[in-house]
Amino acid sequence: xxxxxxxxxxxxxxxxxxxxxxxxxxxxxxxxxxxxxxxxxxxxxxxxxxxxxxxxxxxxxxxxxxxxxxxxxxxxxxxxxxxxxxxxxxxxxxxxxxxxxxxxxxxxxxxxxxxxxxxxxxxxxxxxxxxxxxxxxxxxxxxxxxxxxxxxxxxxxxxxxxxxxxxxxxxxxxxxxxxxxxxxxxxxxxxxxxxxxxxxxxxxxxxxxxxxxxxxxxxxxxxxxxxxxxxxxxxxxxxxxxxxxxxxxxxxxxx
Length: 255
Ligand SMILES: Nc1ncnc2c1ncn2[C@@H]1O[C@H](COP(=O)(O)OP(=O)(O)OP(=O)(O)O)[C@@H](O)[C@H]1O
Fold this sequence. Notes:
The chain has a domain at 91-167. It has ten helices and ten strands. It has helices at residues 41-48, 71-78, 95-106, 109-121, 127-136, 152-165, 182-197, 209-215, 233-238, 243-249, and strands at 3-12, 15-25, 30-34, 56-61, 64-65, 81-84, 170-174, 201-206, 218-223, 226-232. Helix 3 crosses helix 5, helix 3 (95-106) packs parallel to helix 6 (152-165) and helix 5 (127-136) packs across helix 6 (152-165). The longest helix has 16 residues, at 182-197. Residues 12, 17, 35, 37-43, 207 line the site of adenosine-5'-triphosphate. Residues 3-249 form the ABC transporter domain.
């Protein structure tokens, strides 16, 4: 599923966060959105995830302008998007149930009913997808543990597994490793590469430039209320078009 944002503008309380922002994410590519704190990376991801309607511009999924569609069809697109927030929000149940949660949310009511009926007579549907996702983040052995007893890093890995478990077409990640140590960060980065290799399009907001360089195919630089640059990771890091990009990457821009 190809995601495209055209001339997006958005703000709060009459104050623009960004304007004229255009960006695409194709199947099987990782696009990193980098920029200093408060520049609007989370706002952009929320718009792409269809949580909020943009003040200006259009968002298309596979060419369909999603905010022009009837609500039901927009929700169908919404269900094909996995989003991982900066703060892992798990509920008080086992790791496995947390990882399975997305599978149930994604289903229609009819499917959910069938799922619940199936659960009464056999193993829950989706268990294997959830377990496979937990395996990807190295937590399959913790499936029956209480999520509440996990460390912060492990919780973030479960949140990531939950998004992966239902095989979204697009994965939107908001600083998914901000609170993780290098080992946990490596696990998530590896899982992102696996998602990409399975054809999922990934957009990741990060202020860790090294992370963008390690995992992204393309990098978008958000600065001064706009996307000042978007291009292949190599070009953005080694030979950027906009001088502010070079300064930001070299740490010369202070915000
Ligand atoms: N719901 C909201 N209501 C009002 N202002 C908001 C809201 N969400 C974000 N903002 C403001 O919009 C601007 C962009 O915030 P956003 O969280 O998108 O930035 P960010 O680049 O993700 O920052 P960080 O890297 O610190 O998470 C900030 O000035 C923030 O205070």
